[in-house]
């Protein structure tokens, strides 16, 4: 079993930050909803777990799944983000409607899944290399959790500055990021 070198750990740290940046961007928009700090903490932990589970599944299943699954996973993640973002924008016009894109229950699972699908593809490629799986997974989870918390806290602060337009802006950010995933 090869030992992890400092260069490998630094490379994995940069990869973890890159994978967590989508969680940061999406959390910035999601944080503009009225969300309590306790819920923000839970969302960060769940997204961190998904950023550990998805690459692990990718590593385990890497030998059995064709390389085309990465494109489908990216497509699904982009469509989920556009859908959640559009729902947030439309609900900002109708204050009586109940929000569907709340990060609780199944909504939280979809949210965490949509921002961690790209890490599944990364897991597929990591499965072919001699990377230290445990170190990689811990770095991926920790980075995405911290970046999710940071994004949601910043989004929450911006909500106070933007008032009623914050949910519309947050939904627009989610839609934009989903479109970037789909077409960028």
UniProtKB/TrEMBL annotation:
Entry annotated with the keyword Endoplasmic reticulum: no
Entry GO MF terms: manganese ion transmembrane transporter activity
Tagged with keyword Thylakoid: no
Subcellular location field: Cell membrane
Signal peptide: none
Source taxon at top rank: Bacteria
Bilayer-spanning residue ranges: 6-28, 40-65, 71-93, 105-128, 134-155, 162-183
Membrane topology per record: Multi-pass membrane protein
Alphabetized InterPro entries for the sequence: Mntp/YtaF, Put_MntP
GO cellular component, one term: plasma membrane
UniProt entry keywords in alphabetical sequence: Cell membrane, Ion transport, Manganese, Membrane, Transmembrane, Transmembrane helix, Transport
Functional summary from the UniProt entry: Probably functions as a manganese efflux pump.
Record-stated family: Belongs to the MntP (TC 9.B.29) family.
Protein name from the UniProt record: Putative manganese efflux pump MntP
Organism in which the protein naturally occurs: Lentibacillus amyloliquefaciens
